Amino acid sequence: MSPPSVELCAVSRVYGKGRAAVAALREVSVQVPRGGFTAVMGPSGSGKSTFLHCAAGLDRPTSGTVRLGGVELSGRSEDALTVLRREYVGFVFQSFNLVSSLTVLQNITLPLRLAGKRADRDRLTDIVARVGLDGRTGHRPGELSGGQQQRVAIARALITAPEVVFADEPTGALDTVTAREVLTLLRTAVDSLGQTIVMVTHDPVAASYADHVLFLADGRIAQRLDAPTPAAVAELMTELGAWAE
Question: Model pTM?
Answer without folding.
Answer: 0.94
